[in-house]
Amino acid sequence: MVTVRAPATSANLGSGFDVFGAALTRPADVVTVEKAAETTIEVTGAGAQYIPEDPEKNTVGAVVEALDAPARIHIDKGVRPASGLGSSAASAAAAAVALNRLYDRGYSRSELVPIAAEGEAVVSGVAHSDNVAPSILGGFTVTTSEGTHAVDASIPLVVCLPDVAVSTRDARRVVPETASMDALVETVGNAATLAVGMCRSDPDLVGAGMSDPVVTPERARLITGYDDVRAAAFDAGATGVTVSGAGPAILAVCRGGRRRGVAAAMLDAFADAGIDARAYQTRIGRGSTVLEE
Ligand SMILES: Nc1ncnc2c1ncn2[C@@H]1O[C@H](COP(=O)(O)OP(=O)(O)OP(=O)(O)O)[C@@H](O)[C@H]1O
Ligand SMILES: N[C@@H](CCO)C(=O)O
């Protein structure tokens, strides 16, 4: 038996659509696997009632297939589905690390990233790796078709999760098919600024580099109260605010000591819009951890 904890993640970070990702210290999924002749999946925890236990429909089932590793699997969800916090990816990441150990497949953490990404194709139609990469490797990650680079960074964050669901599949439909050269130049500049900020663990640079003129404005329209929550976070001292992944969670970058005030301001703004929400005071953290084997 092997048990692995895989953290929630925030993908895109604004300017790095389908490329950037960051592991969060909390929340997390915990997946336990035991060898079995046939794969069965049991799901408990946050939003379990919305998650299929059929291996054909669960992200973990695709990982079992890719590793040829049938197992009795228990998923304890800490990351609510359709959150923008890499819920589907956290389960897939934990399962990839756990099944690799259980069956002694010998893949490196980096080699497990595309394997876990097969699960994302099951739910969103695209095997994007920007959530599974940080959930496995930890830190800030840059993922391209050539592979993933991970950087340890110490950046305080708040993620505010409203009590509404936005599926990645739906949120990908609003992504523009084209962008102007001006928008491209602005985005490249911002993404590069953010990457430098991560290497320096500088929340001012990271926050400034999250601005994105292409995808985020379209995604923000799907989140009731977004503009007010964003403004409230800036007023409380956030250095940057954007949609986390495909939403509806909203990510705020903070300097040390500002998270409590930023979290309270974001919750108040959602409440003013008539929406219940919860806030996680978190930071960029480590990837999947083996808890028991
Ligand atoms: N193991 C799993 N954990 C969570 N969701 C799963 C899992 N397997 C299948 N799903 C399905 O995936 C969908 C949620 O995935 P989706 O990518 O939309 O959200 P997310 O992972 O929270 O978001 P994001 O990728 O934007 O961070 C739901 O329809 C859910 O039923
Ligand atoms: N890059 C993905 C992350 C969400 O899973 C998107 O924004 O659609």
Q: State the name of the first-level CATH class of the largest domain.
A: Alpha Beta
Rg (CA only): 18 Å
Based on secondary structure, the structural category is alpha+beta
Q: Strand share of the residues? A: 25-35%
GO molecular function: ATP binding; homoserine kinase activity
Domain GHMP kinase N-terminal: 60-139
EC number: 2.7.1.39
InterPro entries: GHMP_kinase_C_dom (IPR013750), GHMP_kinase_C_sf (IPR036554), GHMP_kinase_N_dom (IPR006204), Homoserine_kinase (IPR000870), Ribosomal_Su5_D2-typ_SF (IPR020568), Ribsml_uS5_D2-typ_fold_subgr (IPR014721)
Structure explained in plain terms:
The protein is α+β, with helices and mostly antiparallel strands and 293 residues long. The chain is built from ten helices and eleven strands. The strands form two sheets. Strands 1, 2, 3, 4, 5, 6 and 11 form a seven-stranded mixed beta sheet that branches. Strands 8-9-7-10 form a four-stranded antiparallel beta sheet. β8 and β9 form a beta hairpin. α1 crosses α3 and α9 runs antiparallel to α10. It is globular, with a radius of gyration of 18 Å. The mean pLDDT is 96. Bound molecules: adenosine-5'-triphosphate and L-homoserine. Adenosine-5'-triphosphate (ATP) binds next to α1, α2 and α3. L-homoserine (HSE) binds at residues 11-12, 18, 128, 130-131, 168, 171-172, 245-246. One of its GO terms (biological process) is threonine biosynthetic process. Residues 196-270 form the GHMP kinase C-terminal domain. This is Homoserine kinase.
Q: What descriptors fit this protein?
A:
single chain; 293 residues; alpha+beta; Ribosomal Protein S5, domain 2; Alpha-Beta Plaits; 2 domains; 7-stranded mixed beta sheet; 4-stranded antiparallel beta sheet; 10 helices; globular; binds adenosine-5'-triphosphate; binds L-homoserine; Homoserine kinase
